[in-house]
Amino acid sequence: MTVSPRSLGAGRRRGLRGSPDARFASLPAALPGILVLLVFGAVPLGILTLTALGLGAAGSGEEPGFTLGHLLQVFADPGLRTELWNSALVGIGSVIIMLVVGVPLTLAMSRHEQNRPVSVLVNVIFTLPIALPGIVVGFFTILMLGRTGLFAQAGPAFGGMAYALPGIFAAYIYFSFPRVIGPLRAVMTSFDHSLLETARTLGASRVRTFFTVSLPIVLPAVVEVLGTAAAVTIGGYGTIATLSQGERLLALSVADELSNHYQVASASGLAIVLALLAAGTLGLSRSLAHLLERSRR
Amino acid sequence: MNTVGIRIAVTLCVVFVLFPVLLSFAAATSVNSAQGLWGDGFTGEWLATAWEQIRPTLGRSAVVAAAVVAANLVIGGPLAMWIARSGSGLRHAVSFLATLPLAVPGIALSIGLITVYPELRPSGLLLFAGHVLLTLPFTLAALVPIFADRELRACEDVALSLGSSSARVLATVTVPVSAAALAQAVITTFALSFGEFNISFFINPPATPMVPFALFDAYSTQRLELASAKTMLFILCIVPVLLAVMLFQRSSRSQKGPTP
Questions:
Q1: Which of A82, A139, B14, B161 meets the CB 3.0–4.6 Å disulfide criterion with A6?
Q2: What DSSP element (H or E) covers A95?
Q3: Which residues in B lie closer than 8 A to residue A186 (C-beta atoms)?
């Protein structure tokens, strides 16, 4: 970038750093934001970890003092173990199902859009579920698959399915729809479709082109979308709170321990395990995406 | 996939998303949904009752969401600018810190917040702070890339070299070029805060419920028709917001042309 003498002079003015790159960027102005992140993000998480280790507040009947019991109860208790497994299964599984549908669809849409843009209406409809809290998605599932839901009137086998794993899966697929389709659409806008034309003219079949050309190009981004969406789905509480009559997920027990039994340390321990599962999925996917990106170069 | 195939696939997705919404509307306008949708006839009674009951919570949530949007712009804007442009090594640590609320489930953060700041709870300040914390990462995600954009910075350089003051450049170059990203940040923040459930479940004082909590209450205690009616009113409040951002993005994209 060429720097004129005039802009260098501007850079020396009060509140601006010497480098022209730092224009309008000042630490004092950024401090309130950093403070919010520290005071309401990092500190509560730190305290939550201490509480989970028995070193912070204790609830009714909980003994204060260092222990790993609150963290490890999730592995000791068979019920909680099932909930942890279900959380991982539903969270990651629903996103993978969405990806299997979403990757070919958004890829094809991006190519189609080069000729004719998709209507605003389709974009709004594809984005709508992101504005719906999990509880609303749970309610939708009850309307369709609940005991007196629409599908129950069609066939009794569907009645009450909302509270079993298939129904919960359906709910979380709906929940992750915009969280998968949106980022994928963004990724696909920069996809170079001429590569596919080349592969096709060289005689590769559509399926082969998809698996040997398209997928390797988009894979790092897809892995990252998987992690981000799965972290939100694993941590989501509203949907399962509405569908809590049958099969359970871990988020439900976190809330129960606190609001129904006032077990602060126990709830904190479960919350930390849930957070580790969500953050771990996110971190793992980011590292994997990074590795894939590097191996391609 | 050929053109017809794509159309069919997109249509199926549209049906997948809209079907439950339409079903909810049908239940909300049925006299008795147990007799089949509109089996006993069509009525606006449930919607009228729902509106009376849920109106205060809709208003309260809208006020909180508007305040959260303002806070995001006031503190998120400068923070995004600093992350995008400062050479400080500290910004990597701050970027990492900002991803925490995305990675850590809302209920975990809520438990942390009520343990540490119980005295902020009755006033509603803790709810507000929690919403700001949860929405700030989305504001940063929208603003940091555009503020880091080389072309934007080149435009600012040109304006400054022509003799404009910093404030004028900020107002006439930086903000207009970032308009689409700013709109994205505003809408996302509003929608997230308006529909946020975890914090309003754990942190909010029960005397002044937010609209997601009112919905949850309706789902667990009230008739399917009334719960549907309340859901419809909630969705009717959020759809215009989504439509606005889409239309705004489209118009700013077509105005922008090849060079910003």
A1: B161
A2: helix A78-113
A3: none
